[in-house]
Amino acid sequence: MPEGAIAERDGRIAWLGREADLPEMFRSLAPVDGGGGWLTPGLIDCHTHLVYAGSRAGEFEARLNGESYESIARRGGGIRSTVRATRAASEQELIDAALPRLDALLAEGVTTIEIKSGYGLDLEPERRMLRAARRLAAIRPVRVVTTFLGAHAVPPEYEGRADDYIEHLCVSVLPELQAEGLVDAVDAFCESIAFSPDQVEKLFAAAGRLQLPVKLHAEQLSNQEGAALVARHQGMSADHLEWLSATGIEAMRKAGAVAVLLPGAFYVLRETRVPPIEALRVAGVPMAVATDSNPGTSPLTSLLLAANMASTLFRLTPQEALAGVTREAARALRLPDCGRLEVGACADLALWRVPQPANLVSELGARPLVRSWYAGRPRG
Length: 380
Ligand code: DI6
Ligand code: FE
Hints:
- The chain is of the alpha/beta class.
- Helix content is 39%, strand content 18%.
- Strand 6, helix 7 and strand 7 (185-188) form a beta-alpha-beta unit.
């Protein structure tokens, strides 16, 4: 809205409309001049693996030389190599490693971020990851929600015994971490190189008993009907979805699950099969966009670049891509007070120097953020 004004009180949007209509009670407050920029909700990155140790640049080279992600995973690299580095790191080292990545996202106006565990793969290191993730919200002005991704890969101690590992997660690790208040949701990697739908089903049942909502890495490399599995458990979102089927779309539509698109991983793995965007659009399934920031398949710390890729590679409109990193990302995380400019919503705001909002999506590396606010307070 041109000539718009917005008022904040107690971390929430108290009023918004045309500046000329600003009620007298808000005029006395210290005003900030937007300088003709565009104001949006703070951005929301609803799928990240931001906390981890080590680097996988060597794997990047192996893939350039033609080796596949699956082949690297099968020979003990991939996720497992990050597991080794993460298990060896202290909570403080995990925080120190994650901070530059978090700062890159904050410098682009991100005010809420989801962070998954999943590189610890046992009680103690998974707890350390989740604690590090939660600590980040005390160190920086950002809202962090945490997801338990113990079912990311089978750890070496359980080699060939994936069912036993899932049992261990369900009976011991997840209930313990939930009791410690470290878990907001439960995720899993449903794939031929990871966990089967039956194994995920058991984990989701355990999550349900603990009243934790679920989401899933689904149909990234093959169709396992993971989206329908999420839908059966009234899950928050199904993420990736390159191999999503018509049945999956219908199940997601009925359950109101969000489709989280992760074009960074698609790009890095040089995938060629695009998620069925038009079918999702026609079905009215909400589409969010996230970085999937992780050391292997998406070493990406720019949510605006993810939005650009969602448009360039997946053909989302700029409006859909922007909704995907605000309103729909909030929906994916079930944060109804975030991602919207409305009275009563969180005053998480980003001010941009762009001629129109579409420039946020169309430009690469433009650094258009002027300033941002978290719960009404200016940041940095
Ligand atoms: N899918 C992904 O994109 C990440 N995890 C997953 O299940 C990749 C994680 C990694 O390679 O470290
Ligand atoms: Fe992921």
